[in-house]
Design a protein that fits this description.
Layout lengths: L9 E6 L1 E7 L3 E7 L2 E4 L2 E7 L3 H9 L1 E6 L5 H8 L6 H5 L3 E3 L5 E3 L4 E13 L2 E13 L19 E5 L2 E3 L1
Length: 167
């Protein structure tokens, strides 16, 4: 029998990533996010409307998604719990600039560059609908045929509710 659970949120296993953007104060910055999906060349993610990331992305119209592996859980936590700070400095992570002038986290094997199509406010959250303009993958994760070597990729999945979280 199923029982109703009273919780303000319930994540049942979403990929955790760094959302990269130009920042008027820090130059370039990242935030941790775990609300995302992608179909074809469309990508949708969501964050709090008042977050620094949403405010900055609404100005530039571009952002990046850098997908880490399990060895970056500490950095994911730091970037997720330090709002309006220079998170590259706090985490020690380095970045390269993508074609869209957005930061791509060097330690992440998979990066995606995006152009905002629409930003849709929904209560305290904003859904960002974007067009994928570029995907790049470390060569270790590309087969001889030029395909994604999925079996060796170990992304961070976020599972949690209002009481706690697990990666």
């Amino acid at each position: 029998m199923k029982e109703t659970i009273d919780t303000r949120k319930l994540y049942f296993g979403f990929p955790t990533f760094f959302l990269g953007y130009k920042d008027r104060i820090h130059g370039y910055n990242i935030s941790t996010c775990s609300s995302i999906y992608s179909l074809g060349n469309m990508l949708v993610c969501a964050m709090r409307t008042k977050s620094n990331a949403i405010q900055e992305i609404s100005q530039t119209g571009v952002f990046s998604v850098s997908v880490p592996q399990m060895d970056l859980v500490r950095e994911i936590e730091i970037a997720g719990f330090n709002s309006h700070k220079d998170k590259f400095n706090l985490t020690g992570l380095t970045y390269s600039l993508g074609e869209a002038d957005v930061p791509l986290v060097d330690a992440c094997p998979l990066v995606i560059e995006c152009q905002v199509v629409e930003m849709v406010p929904c209560g305290a959250l904003t859904n960002v609908i974007a067009k994928v303009t570029r995907r790049a993958l470390d060569s270790d994760f590309i087969t001889e045929d030029g395909n994604f070597r999925k079996e060796t990729f170990d992304p961070i999945s976020y599972i949690g509710d209002g009481a706690g979280r697990l990666y």
